[in-house]
Amino acid sequence: MNSFTIRDLENLSGxxxxxxxxxxxxxxxxxxxxxxxxxxxxCNEELKTVLNISxxxxxxxxxxxxxxxxxxxxxxxxxxxxxxxxRQERAxxxxxxxxxxxxxxxxxxALDDYIKLCGIDKSIQQLIFPFLNRIGxxxxxxxxxxxxxxLVTNIIRQKLIIGIEGxxxxxxxxxxxxxxxxEGEYHELGLLYxxxxxxxxxxKPIYLGANIPITDVEFVAKLKTPDFLYxxxxxxxxxxxxxxxxxxxxxxxxxxxFVISGQITRxxxxxxxxTIHLKRSLPEVLEYIAGL
Length: 292
Fold this sequence. Notes:
The chain is of the alpha/beta class. It is built from 12 helices and 7 strands.
């Protein structure tokens, strides 16, 4: 059984912590436990409840009406949502449910069903990447068990590799990209997605993998002379200094542009070397790759 903070619920549902506290005071669907120091924490079922309620509320249902629904009625109303965005959010929520319940068979079935219906490209953009964005904060705060993370990421990794292997495009860009994750970063999924996007665009990715020392990147870069380097940072070790790392890369590989995306880029406010480019959101990544 997991335990989630009110900030976890806020990050996963998009509902502000202040609003969640008001719901607890006025309605009956949330009853958090408290630690010895009086801090709220929530179980798996309460997380599912908040996700369901936030989905219905976002698409026109009043909280006072939702509060009177039984679990069956709540589930039925969610199924009947017809807006494309609602169906997409519902699919992401289902992956979260199966992950926290450690129901790996249903997790993979839900993913496979979406891929069969929409294809791998749309599944990556509409389901896999939004799912990873939503749960990334749980990985950073250790509010899910590492086994849950490993099991679901391995399944997603397999689907991404299948997508990469099957990517075919008539466009052939004369651009080579060296992809890697720095030392201490093992979360490959974001970088594999970029690999897929680049291959789909007709570029030639060279994939070094995770936990790569900068000296190894420098060696391959000198040998292969790529048009640019690319990394995606999801949840790197606590001793990692982002600004220091950028300076080191710029010093050792000054002539090759370096593109970085991922969670850590959103909080960076320091001045960066001119050859380094931060992509702070998925739309920025997509726009950059489309413009190659």
